[in-house]
Each structure stands twice: as structure tokens, then as C-alpha cells.
Amino acid sequence: MKVLMLGWEFPPFISGGLGTACYGLTKAMSRQGTEITFVLPGGNQQACDYMKILSAEGFLDSPEFKNITFRSAGIVLNPYASASEIITDKIETVGSQTWQSNPSNGRHYGSDVLQQVEKYTRNTLDIASTEKFNIIHAHDWMTFPAAISASAISGKPAVLHVHSTEFDRSGEHVFQAIYDIERYGMYNAKKVIAVSNYTKNIIVNRYDVPPEKIDVVYNGVENDTPAENGSDKRDKIVLYLGRITFQKGPDYFVAAAKRVLEKMSNVKFVMAGDGDMTQRMIEYAAYLGIGQKLFFTRFLRGQNVRRVYQMADLYVMPSVSEPFGIAALEAMVNKVPVILSKQSGIAEAVYNALKVNFWDIDEMANKIFAALKHRPLRTMLSENGYDEAGKFRWDNSAGKINEIYKQVLACA
Amino acid sequence: MAAICFYFQVHQPFRLRNYTIFETDSNYYDEFKNGQICRKVADKCYLPANRLILELIKKHKGRFRVAYSITGVLLEQLEKYAPNALYTFKELADTGCVEFLAETYHHSLSSLYSHKEFLEQIDLHCDKIRKHFGLNPRIFRNTELIYNNQIAELIESTGQFDAILAEGADHILGYKSPNFVYQPLRCKKLKLLLKNYKLSDDIAFRFSNRGWDEWPLYAPKFAQWVNAVNGCGYNVNLFMDYETFGEHQWESTGIFDFMRQLPDEILNHPDNSFKTPSEVIRSYPACEALDIPYTISWADIERDLSAWLGNPMQRNALAEIYRLEQTVKQTADSKIIEDWRKLQTSDHFYYMCTKWFADGDVHKYFNPYDSPYDSYINFMNVLDNLSSRCKNILNTTASQHKKTKSTRRNNRSKDSQLV
What we know:
Number of helices of chain A: 15
Number of domains of chain B: 2
Strand order of the largest sheet of chain A: 3-2-1-4-5-6-7
Oligomer: heterodimer
Helix content of chain B: 40-55%
CATH class of the largest domain in chain B: Alpha Beta
Number of strands of chain B: 10
Helix content of chain A: 40-55%
Distance between the termini of chain B: 91 Å
Number of strands of chain A: 13
Structural class of chain B: alpha/beta
CATH architecture of the largest domain in chain B: Alpha-Beta Barrel
Number of domains of chain A: 2
Order of helices and strands of chain A: EHEEHHEHEHHEHEEHEHEHEHEHEHHH
CATH architecture of the largest domain in chain A: 3-Layer(aba) Sandwich
Strand content of chain B: 5-15%
CATH topology of the largest domain in chain A: Rossmann fold
Number of helices of chain B: 16
CATH superfamily of the largest domain in chain A: Glycogen Phosphorylase B
Order of helices and strands of chain B: EHEHHEHEHEHEEHHEHEHEHHHHHH
CATH topology of the largest domain in chain B: 7-stranded beta/alpha barrel
Shape of chain A: globular
Largest interface: A-B, 23 and 18 residues
């Protein structure tokens, strides 16, 4: 089986879960003998201030990827804006009585994202014409036009893997052009893979894709030996880890922190990550008067992620809409108890986590408080959560995807 | 001879409302949900089942007899939400063919934590049964048939009871049969009746299971199984939740028709009869003393305490609530004491059980929580509020005490000045 795989980020230069997912998935698929040509946008020198697009060539030597060839489409494709790009707007809310948390339409996207997608598509078609493959597998909307065009030209079926939809990223204020790309892609694909039933429902209800066209394949997690978290520090630490953007609900985290601090003082809140709302959150924490208890690490990667898990007594994922939530699984395999937004794919897939509606700040604070206060609860969440998360293996995901390939090719 | 001894457990807890750490009032219960569930169970189970039992008692002119154990917390809810169902229980009591058993008023696990509290709750329950039904319970059944030698000895020491009930668990009985009367080890008077769990569960759990070899189960077949006991036992103890009729087994499964036919089929055999627990122990001698050093119950396949004490949250919650006993009782505040007792109802700890994550669905029945973690958090929040209420009262009385002392001293010094 030869697969032409289209993606736009890959470790170590990632902005979030998609790169992690592509890494784990392709590694497992490679182990199972699937040959993959992975097309990435990046070239050597491209970088932005919080993430760098991978130079594909560096990975060619790794024995883990012996079945994978990386090709570069030679452009920069970093769709999500960073903090420095968007804080040109003045934040007016400080000192006022109400706090507006909705970012304006499309602000979290980089400015020329659509031109970049177009370029990526053109360059991918060049690559596709020189490669031999049986099937095309594309990750998220930026690569959908390339997948559908490559499919039309080569006559090979396209499978689209949806790690997030425009509704997850932008709520009800969708960026129409991106929605159109997603809808067009899924309409023309042979099969759509959703990372959860939660995402499948969005695709059915919002994009009108027939449910039988969509298969759910959960993500996996790399199974590390968990970090020891036994230090007798005075203050408990509650961790937020993710892009600081509308989709991830950072404002609900800050508001819940405020409520928790009304009930207990020996606790600190850490926000690890970056994004278009970082500045707003710093201001918001100041506005609420909890600046001395809330810390920002900016974007973390590699060992620093492990270290922040080691420090944490609790991980909170307050996402407004989270297709899957790999970071939550990572927290669980690091034996950190987790609180998950019910508006997430991972919440449907695990039992050993606390779950809240993202908007229910009191309930979120209630559960944060309980997890910090009651040791038996923390112990059970961390032990059982560790066992449960360990069952999400990339090998299972890769196996399911191979089945899907077979089905699609049989019907083609 | 095979005497069928039916005993039905009738219980619903006071479920807690969603109570976050930010709540300050002392209304802990979900009035709406409790009322709704109580009325629903009354309509689907208590009323139709009571009507049926009454009809059977009349039809068989006293040859059909049963026993009930109705918890105090359910009786309170019936008074409030379904008085008509309570009335039909009274009608049953008036037939003279129905025995009412004693248990802890609050369906609690106090036997495992505080013998003092355990005995107080038994007294409360006996009072309640006397008040409603005019009968004096002579048979004791502990919450969820939790039993061991010590509990039996404690019950005997009260002198109030003639027998105690327990699960006929395989790992206790071995080759022995549950179809005889036993005596608890080291007890002189108290008898022990064991549940025939196979025949009980055929009705309570397997009745509507289409994957079961014996499905569908009709009364004649069941009567044959009971007849087979003749010659190797006296009494067949069928102990089960009353909600078996109409709730666990819906009316459409034919459970009521099964019950309607059963007495005829059983009584067809001249050696068979129906007896209440008290009648069973009057009719048959105890065959031997039974040593049950480890605690057993009727719950799940393990028949042990793991449904309530199986994980750290459950053990923590139970330890915390009984740690409060002295403080709570010191307040002498009847409302606080009653709230503390309602929190002891075993269901609260059952909801925290994590065993069912993998398999069973029984724990989910009427379970108001999405997850055992949520139930623990909610329970601990309520307990925290209760604890601060105690502290408030005790602090106020302590400071008042101080004040009166100091005023007295002041007065005295004034007096001396005057002199």
C-alpha cells in the first residue's frame, strides 16, 4: 500500500495536536508496513515567532520512518496567528464592568492563509505527478483542495482526515471561505475520517455529509513512563495547556481560577501555550485581580511539556469545542488528573476524568477545588486515568485506517 | 416440605441535589427528582404489586404470605410523595399475612462503623414500623444483607429479634444448602435465614433475559424447581428488591402474571406452603451453627462489600461521615442529626462505585450521577457544609458559655463592691 499523505505540520515544529497526531499515526503505519509519501509545506528557513515549519529532509534518516518519504511543498503554511500578530488592536475592556471574550471574525488566522493554501495545492500537484501511490490521505482543511485536485488528476481516491472543523475553531462566526473548502473537500472525498463521534456529529449536522461516509478513528498517545509527581510543594498547580485561542476556552479557565481562589489560596494556575488571546488573558487576569496567582509560560515543547506535567496537580481542558484533545491523553499518561470539557471528543471516550460544560464556570471551579482538596479523588483519577489512556494506541488507529483504505480501494 | 419465604426489599434514598462548594444553604436533597422517582416507582411497582399481593392473599385465604422490609427513608418519601402507596402497604399489614422486618431506618452501613449509631437507627426504624403498621418487627435484616458473626451477636444482644437474614453465598455455604434454618455462631437464641440466591435471582435478574436457557420462565416451571427442594430442605428463601416487579422487570415481561400464577402452582403440591420468616423459624429447628467471620452481602457477583467500600473515594467518604458522629451528636440539633443520617444511606456510596465502568448496569439504576467521581465530589461538598453547621453551633454555644461565665463573674465582683 502506498499512500500520498498531505499534512502541514510535523514535530518538532508544531502548534498543537495535529502535528502530534501525524507523527504518532505515520510512525505506527510505517511499523505496519504502509509506505507513505508525506507532503509538508515547509522549507528550511521558514519560521514564525512561536512555531517553525518543519524541514522535511531532516527526518529521512530516522529508522522509525523507514517507510516514509517526506516531500516539501516549499512554502510557509502556518494558518494560526500568534500573539504578536494580532495584538495591534487596543484592548479596551480593562477596568470596565463587562468582559467580552469573543474575538472578531477570523482574527485567529494568519493574514494570507488562503494564498498559502493555493500555493500548497499547486506544489502538491507537481509532487503528485511524480509519485506513485494507491490512495490520498489528507489532514485538515488546508490540504483538502490539494487532495481533491490530486485525486481528480491521478484517479486515486481521497480520504480526508478531520482533526478539527471551522465550527470548532471559530464557533458560530465561521470564516466562510474555509467552511466552503471543508465542505467541498468532504463532498468530493471517498471517505471522511473523524477523530471522534463529537466531530462526526458536527460534520453530519453542519456540512450535511451522510453519516455512513464518515468513520470515527480515535487518536492515540505515545506511552511514556509517567513523570514522578511527588514533590512536597506548598502550592497546588492547575495547568492549562494548549493554544490560547477562542476554541480552547482560555477565558473560562481564568474565570474558574478566580472562583477557586475565593475558596482556597494555596493554589497556582499555569497557562502553557500561546495564541491570539494570550494578551487578552493576561489583561483579564489582572482585571480579576488574580495576576499574582496566574502564570503564563508561552509556547512549550519537548522536555518542557513533560516538566510542566510533572509540576501539575491537575490539568484542565476547558475547550469550547475540541474535536479530540490529545493533550488530555498526554496529561493522563503522565498521571495527571484531568478535567475535560464535555464539548470534546476525548470526553466521550474516557471514563476516568472529571467532565464539565465549558461555560459552567462554577462547576469547573467546584471540580478543580474538589480535585485539589481530596487526595483519594486525585489518586483514583490519576491511577485509573493512566491505565485508561494507555489503551489509546497509535497502532490501533493505524490498523483502523488500514481497514478504511482497503474498503475505499475495494469500492473504487 | 418446601415453604416459600418471600421477603421484598422496599427502599429509595433521598438523592442529593447538585451541590457545589459555593452553596451555603442546608437544603441538600433533590426534591424534584426524589418526588418524580418516588411517584414513578409507586405507579409502576408499589401500587400494582401491592394490589396483586392483596388479591393473592384474599384469594388463597391466608395461605399466601410474604414479608417486607421498608426503609424509614422510603416511608418518609411515601408520606410526602405517594401517600396512596403507603395506604396500600397498611392494607397489606391489616391482612395479618404480611410480616414487616426491621433494619436501619436510613438503610445505612452503620453496622460496619458505629455500633451505637447502628442500634439507634434500628430503634428508629422499629418505631416507624409500629407507628405506620402497628406491628412489632421480630426479624432483622441488615442493609443489603450485610452480615458477619459480630453483627449477628450484636443483634442477639438487643434481645429484640428472633432471626437475622443473610445472603446464601456460595463461598460461605460450600456444599451446604440455604434451604434450612441455621444459627449464627456463638448465638443462643437468634436464628439465621439464608437467601436462596439461585431461585431468587431467577426471578429478580434473569426473568426477562432472552439469552437465558430457561427463558421464558413461567410459574409451573418455577414451581417444579421449588418442588425439587422437597426432601433436601425445608424453606426456600426468596429475597429480592420489590422493584423487581414493574421496574427491574417491566410489566410487559409478564412478571405480574408470573406472580399471579405462582401461588396456585406452588400450593398444587400438598407439601408446599408460603411462610413469613417468623413462621419459618417457628416451624423448623436450626440445623447447625454457621461461622461467617468475613463480611458478606447480597451485592453483585462478589457478594462482599466492594460495591460500597471498593475504592479509595468510598472508603474516604465513609470514614469522614462517621468521624463526624460525635460532633454531630454534640450539637443536639435534630435537623443536623437527621441530615447526617440521611447522608449515611448506602446508595450515596454505591453511586461512587467504579466497578460498573467495565460491566454491570445495575449500579446505574436510578443513579442521578454521570460518574462515580461526580457523586463523590457532590457528597463531600454536602458533608463539608454539614460539618461547618456543626462547628457554627458548637462555637456559638461555647462562646455563649464563656459569656455567661464572665457576666456572672462581673456581677459577683459588683456585688462584692457593693458590700
